[in-house]
Structure formats: C-alpha cells, structure tokens
Amino acid sequence: MPADIVREICLCLHPRDLLSLCRTVKFFHGILMYKDFAPVWRDCLKRVDGLPQCPPGLIEPAYVSLVFSPNCTGCGERKATAVYWVWFARLCAACKKSNVVSDEEVAEFLTDTQWESFEDIGADGDEEDKVLVQASVSGCKRPCYLKPDLLQVLAAFRQATDTHKFRHERWRLVRQRNKFASACQKWQKKEEENQKATLEALRLDQIVERLCALGWSAEIDYLREQDLQALKNFGSVSLPKKLTKNAWDKMRAEVVEYMANVRTERLQREYQMLLERRYAVLADAGNELLDRQFAKRPELIAYGLNTADLALQDEFRAIMCRPSDVEIAKSDFLALDNRMDTIVERWTRHIEKHLRKRVVKAALVSPRAAGIDPLNLALTIFKFGKYDEYCNLFPFFTASFDCSLRTAPPDLQGRVLSPYEKFIFGKDPKHGPFRDTGFAKTRVVKPRADTLAIIRMAGQDPDTVTAAEMDALDLRWVDRYDDVYHWRDAVAASSVENRTPGGWRLATPEESVKAKEIEIDHLQDSDLEHLHIE
C-alpha cells in the first residue's frame, strides 16, 4: 500500500486507534514507527481537544501510549489508571511500590554518597523540589520521587563540572515538567468529566426508554421541558455507569412512584393552562356582560362585582369546567346575558344576607330604625378585624380590594378548595373574587362622637337617617386640616380609632363648589378619599 494512502488513512484516526493499529498490525508498526511519520502522530494529537502538545523528552507514540493506553509504563503488562504526568509514567500498584520513594524515606533509600549529592543539589537551602521532579502519590503524605529518575539525576550531578549550570538546567526542566503536568491534569479532569457525563447521559437514556415503554411518555416530555433535571436528581439515575437489568429492577418501583407524582403535576399544570386560556375568554366576555349590568344598575359598581366573581357562579363555572377537548368561545359566555339579572341578584343578596348577620350580631341598630334595612342606614359602618383602620359603609366596603372580603384566606375552617377554586382565588386581590371567609372578621363599628356630630350638623337623626337621605343633601364636611370630605368619607375618616377627635364643620358653599369640581376631575380614577382646599 502506498505510503501517502497510509498517511491519509492514519490522519483520520484517533490517536488511541492509531496506537492500537501500530501495536497489532506488524505492517503498520513498521511504517508508523518510522520517524518520517512523526508529523502524522502530531496531527492526530492536535485533533484531541485541549490535549497539551507532546513534551520534550518523549516521542509522539510514547506520548500517545502515556495518554491513552491503560498499561503500566513500568512493567508494560498490568493496568495502571494513575498517570504521573510529571514523570511521563503510568504505574500499577506493584511498580509504584518498587519505583517510588517518599521524601521522608529518601534518606534510607540512598547510599551515603548519593545522599551527599542529594543534599548538595539543593544548595542554598532545601531546594530539592526545584531541581528534582516530585509528584503527589496516593498513600504518601510527602512528595515522592521516581527512583530511576532520582538516581540518574544524582549520578549526573556528581559528574557535572559546572554544578551551577547543572542546577539552572534542572530548574528549567522541572518548571517545564510541572507546567506540562498542570496542563495535562486540567485536560484529564475535563476528559473524566466528559466521560462521566456521557455515561450518565447513556444511563438516563436507558431509563427514559424503559419508562416510555411502561407508558410514561407524556410525563417524560413534560420533564424534558426542564432538561429532565428532576429525574437526574435521583441518586440511582445519575450514575456514570451503564444500566443493568439488576440495577433497573432495584430502582424501578421508586422511579415509577415518582413518575406517578409527575403525572399528577403534569395534569395540574395542563389544567392550569387550560383555565388560563379560558379565563382570558371569560374576561373578554365578562367585561361586556358587566358593562351591560352597570348600565342598567349603576349602583352595582359600588359592590366591586368583577369577572372573578362571575367565574365562581354556577353558570359560568359550568362553562369554564367543560371537558378539556371542548373549545370554549366568547359566545358561550355571552349566551348567559339573559341570565345575568338573576346571577347578579343572587350574588348581591348573598353578600347582603351575611352582612346583615354581622349587623344583628353587633346589636348597634336603634329600635327606632325598625323597618329600615340596616344596610341602608347612614351609620352602619364596617371594618375588617379588631385593629384594622379601614372603615367604610355598605356597599363600598365590599368593593375595596384590601378589605377582608377580598383578601381573607378562602379555605378557612378546613374547607378544601377544588383546583378550579384555587385558580380563581389565586387572582390578585385587585381583580380577585369576593370571599365568604372574610365575613368572620368583618365587624360593625359603633359610631364615635365625631361621627354622630357629622350627621347632626346636617340636621339628621343618627339613629334613623339613611344613606340615600344623606346623599340627597349633597353636603361636604371640612376637618381640622381643611381637608374637604363627602359625607361618606367623613363618616369613614371619623370612625378611625386613633384619629384626633373634634375639628369637623360643614363646608361653606364656596368650599363645596370647589370640592365638587375636583371630585368630577377625579371621578374616572375612582380613587377619591378626601380633597384639600387651599
């Protein structure tokens, strides 16, 4: 076979394969060990990513053997996994024992003459590590020397005519060897990591294949979205070894149990995503349906009725919870328009019923108000909790997103929420639903002296005056800071427990006019609490 063809073939091989070819085929051995083929070895070595170049003192085939052959460089027979790059050697256990000497045992190993040279070579102090090649060896606490190398250097030192020059050359060689060894160790570590990752990936693929065969393909696809990380976290999965039947039999029950949990998680997420898509359709239709209701009954705006509230009504819930393979359209929700009056009426009555119970429990309504719905009284004031400062009248109390009826935990008293309810109650309080559990912490506040005085300033009876009657008066109040309030806001502000008492008066006609102009400007923001008149 022509040499140029052999050269082209060899250039396509990995150095490990080139070495194997050289050792097993006599024809190739004769060619590849010819020095003109050294460039072929070098070119093959360059194809190994990150591997340092062949160092001085080694020919390329020997370097390839050192890097890729598992055989001991001492005996050439036994397996040797430990590579001592600084010595250009792989040593099996037997050869390591016979060819390596520890720094603390070197005095016993050397003859008197050799020991004298050993001490002399480290002139100006203990500098043997600068002129003699040392390596760390497992089982030895101190640095070690390769015996043949040590004896050769000491013999050469005794024969040297210029010991200073000899030391300088040795310093240069030791630095060169240490630099080479550091680069090789870095490459070796990376190779071991790559090999480990390859074996782990192969084992993972084998496990995935078995799980798919057992019917867990959908769960595997779900886990792939996170690069199968959850599966990799299993100690029995992420091992750098091929999967055996025995290993699979041992881990199978645990892994399958985990996959069952993954299936639950996957179905929950798919359901969550389904609800997200459907809720977007509901929000579009719900806004349209609510706008129609608000146009007919503007007072509903004060209740804070929103899309999330609709979502918990049976009619809307039935559509939202249709089977996953049923497509939901905006028209499905709009078809409930003829039911909206009933739905909204049912929702408002539910809230009113529970708030009336809180009023009855507080026993603050005067007998003189008999026959009047307590929720319509001007001084039926609600607050959330014992220490909360927020106070307001019905129905505005139900609309505030930071009151108990919008923020209370939805699952008090051990009630288990369905996945659908968890989704709806998981909405931000600003857009979330009304919560029945908030009634438990809703309190009715006894009017304070300032609050009663505000009503009396309007010429009304605090025990019997209704909110509608106060609205009809269209009056404004001013506090000690010259802040101007609508009567509802004045009642709410005066009910705060830590507010300094006194200082309230009726606004003048001029102050009222100016306040109303500002109210109109702020009306679209629905964020009016009080206004300051300069």
Explain this structure to me?
The chain is mainly alpha-helical and 534 residues long. Among the domains are: 1-69, no CATH class; 449-533, no CATH class. It has 25 helices and 11 strands. The chain has helices spanning 3-11, 15-24, 26-32, 38-46, 60-68, 93-99, 106-109, 112-121, 128-131, 147-159, 163-213, 217-224, 229-232, 245-296, 307-311, 314-320, 330-334, 340-362, 396-399, 404-407, 419-425, 449-457, 467-473, 487-494, 509-522; strands spanning 83-84, 89-90, 100-102, 144-146, 381-384, 391-393, 442-445, 476-478, 483-486, 505-506, 531-532. Strands 10-8-9-11 form a 4-stranded antiparallel sheet. A 3-stranded antiparallel sheet has the order 6-5-7. A two-stranded antiparallel sheet has the order 1-2. The N and C termini lie far apart (107 Å). The model is unreliable at 526-534 (pLDDT under 50).
Summarize the main sheet: 4 strands, antiparallel
Q: Which descriptor suits the 3D outline? A: elongated
**Rg (C-alpha, Å):** 44 Å
Secondary structure class reads mainly alpha
Number of DSSP helical runs:
25
Tally of DSSP β-strands: 11
| N-end to C-end Cα span | 107 Å
Low-confidence segments: 526-534
Protein name: F-box domain-containing protein
Characteristics of this structure?
mainly alpha, 534 residues, 4-stranded antiparallel sheet
In short:
Helices cover 54% and strands 6% of the residues. The model is unreliable at 526-534 (pLDDT under 50). It has helices spanning 3-11, 15-24, 26-32, 38-46, 60-68, 93-99, 106-109, 112-121, 128-131, 147-159, 163-213, 217-224, 229-232, 245-296, 307-311, 314-320, 330-334, 340-362, 396-399, 404-407, 419-425, 449-457, 467-473, 487-494, 509-522; strands at 83-84, 89-90, 100-102, 144-146, 381-384, 391-393, 442-445, 476-478, 483-486, 505-506, 531-532.
